[in-house]
Amino acid sequence: MKKITLLICLLLTAAGVNAQQEKGIIGYTNWLDNWTEFKPQKADSKEPNQILAGNIKENTKLLKRNVYVLQGNVYVTNNAVLTIEPGTVIIGDAESKGTLVITKGAQIIAQGLETDPIVFTSNRSMKKAGDWGGVVVLGDAPINKFGSVGSYNMDLDPALTVYGGNNAAGNSGILKFVRIEFAGKKVKGADTFNGLTIAGVGNKTILENVMVSYSGGDSFAFYGGDVNASQLVSYKSINDDFKFTQGVQCRLYNSLAVRSSYLSSNKDGSRCLEVKSFEKKSDTDFTKKSTLVAATNITMLNDSENIKADMQAGLVKEAIYVAESASLELKRSVVSGFNPAVLIDSQTEINSENLKKIKFEEMFFNQCSGNIFTENKTDNSDLENWYGNSVFFNVYSNTDNKETFVDVYNQRRPDFRLQLGKITASSGK
After folding, report:
1. For 98-124, how does the pLDDT look when each residue is reduced to its tens digit (9 = 90+)?
2. Dist. CA 176–CA 36, nearest whole Å
């Protein structure tokens, strides 16, 4: 009997050593190690020796031994494949708003390594959000606009920025172990570029281990398409961390959004998740699929060291916004330090049909001034009671980031996994 008891104790100890938290980003080890960079302003700038400009019309390979400067709008066209070696550095030119566009039918194969990521960054000596354009990937998967096609309307060539079609299994290539830093330039008379724009992209495209930091626009913007994505990192963007619209069907897994109270835009569009079915209702074909985002093991946090003071100063908004006719299924995720955690569009009637489309299950809400609200409504007891029902296994806490996460303030290698044991927080509101 003593031997059995000892064996059980040893097994429990071993399990404790290798245990991982079930909510928020997961992993037996910190998967952010090696390939991410949380202080890109201090990273050494390399001098470019190659220029990328104009149209790339044939298969092309970028080599690690070179440093490339992206000048103006660069298009990969004619069904060409742009392959980028691990460790390659591409510098977006600030003066000409360097932007890389993978046109419909073309592919990008940017497959870095954990120890040798591919890096897109700024050529300014004092780097800041919005220095250059960004990376745009266009595909032929379904969108819900009339005619099944859209165009990414910035200051780009409209003939080369068409996206959408009927191929849900489209393949626009691979983005893996890639960093995109200081993108999202504002275009005069138009909008702001995003770090990574994914428009009409199909589910054979691989999007894994991509970090967008200090974007002047959204970090990741998904316009329609059918997308699988995992281990994406958005760090201190000005606008949204993850924007979903135009009927995208997206499955997002094990991903991270870190916001700063002091970098957010004053306008709408400074959220971790913004889930919409359309940009313009008049352009939308409602016979087609509305936006559906199924997200699991997502960590969303405001990295403020004094979240209450920031809330009182009006610097903190909601983490998640769900607009009219859009669907969000969010499970086993962490929302920490927002005001409130979730805001549902005022056009969404709170009834059983709509509540089935907006699911929050096995969530960990922490340090939020209110949990799930309807926009412009003062009494949200109906939503609080619904999502507070024990059947959803949502839990609530009010502990600071240092106690909540493993090592959130480590400047070189932060660890945003939940500390083991935090999930035992009260299930009461």
Report:
1. 999 999 999 999 999 999 999 999 999
2. 12
